[in-house]
Amino acid sequence: MSSFLGKEEVVSGEFGSRPQPPSLSIERVENKSRLYLQGTISLDNVSAYRDQMINLLAEKPDLVELDLSRSELNGSAVIALLVSIQRFARTENRNLSIVRSQPKLLEMAGISGLLDILPFEPA
Description:
By secondary structure, the chain is of the alpha/beta class. It has one domain (9-111): Transcription Regulator spoIIAA, CATH 3.30.750.24. Helices cover 31% and strands 31% of the residues. The protein has helices spanning 46-59, 77-91, 103-111; strands at residues 9-13, 16-20, 23-29, 32-41, 63-67, 71-73, 97-99. Strands 3, 4, 5, 6 and 7 form a 5-stranded mixed sheet that branches. A two-stranded antiparallel ribbon has the order 1-2. The relative contact order is 0.16.
């Protein structure tokens, strides 16, 4: 598992609040490497996520899927992150798919006119 140090986010749930630091992890799924974003993506940590993701993409040529199912969205920061990562992938001639996206994210991308630019896979 790859992770980075960042600002801790507090996650409230059924069992009370507990800190959940933002992190990234890579797993093999159906002969592909999938990058999972975990934690809350916000303006406070989006640049740290971006830097770590770019480093992982540069190191792992078989990394082809980005999974957002384990992350929480906080405003439009995640849209900026995805555009930045997609731009990097294109400059490296890499195909990157965004899988298991949350409906709220697809709605934000649609409102922003980015559904044709960001490589969302159907649910």
